[in-house]
Amino acid sequence: MVMGPTHALSGVAVWMAGAAGLQMCGVTLPGAEVAVGAAVSAGAALLPDIDHPSSTVARTFGPVSTALSHGVDRAATAVYNLTRTAREAPRTGGHRTLTHTAVFAATVGGLVSTACGLLGKPAAVTVLFLMLGLAIRGLMGRWARRQGWMVTTLVTAAAAAGAVWWLPPGRGYPVLGLAVAVGSLTHCLGDMITKQGCPLAWPLVHRGKRWWEFAPPAAMRIRAGGSFEKTVLVPVLALSTAASTAFAIPEVQALILSG
């Protein structure tokens, strides 16, 4: 799979590019919504790998997230085997199946938006706690590994409390569901460019397979964790994020213009 930091950074890059595009089209978003949404999208860009017990997301909250990952893995395996076509072989593991689909991204984003709309701040705090925890593990992986999951969890709780205070009440909460959906879908698009591909269109059948792994031509695919990802893809994502931020957040744009 693409490395955790790359996934997290891609979530930020795509969110910031979208926000910058809206600003350039005359749609102004509060800086708090853009910034918090970027952090949530970074965390959500790791979320689909909850189906892999050895992934970054599975280790984020210690034994709790590890146990959840094993459960998701078994559930995803069951869904795959129940819905596979005759042309698809049975599987004993669920990685890159159910949670790596557009249906999953849309569903989890919709559930977050619904929960925040119905429950307000308690739901928003919960979502922020979970997604910011993933973002910290993805973007600050070395620090998080040195500190351990307990310290990381405490820092995440403080960050979530600050973020929910910063967001405009009511208006700021719907952005969380959108950010989760964007991050999850970005993860799938990132996995599509690797050697294995991604079953993005499930449950639609393509060429006789419901779990067809979509990917670009072989010459355009990359090796996960390889030199291209580290020396080209990561710097490009970082530079695009920095460039987009200048347009996406009004306060940053005003600061640049005033300087």
Structure description:
The protein is mostly helical and 259 residues long. 67% of the residues lie in helices and 0% in strands. It is built from ten helices and no strands. α1 (4-24) packs across α8 (174-192) and α5 (102-119) packs across α6 (121-139). The longest helix has 26 residues, at 141-166. The radius of gyration is 18 Å and the shape is globular.
Largest sheet: none
Distance between the first and last residues' Cα:
42 Å
How would you classify the helix and strand content by structural class? Answer: mainly alpha
Series of H and E elements? HHHHHHHHHH
Shape: globular
Element layout with pairings:
Elements: H1 4-24, H2 31-44, H3 56-59, H4 63-83, H5 102-119, H6 121-139, H7 141-166, H8 174-192, H9 227-248, H10 250-258
Features:
globular, 259 residues
How would you summarize what this structure contains?
This protein is mainly alpha-helical. The chain is built from ten helices and no strands.
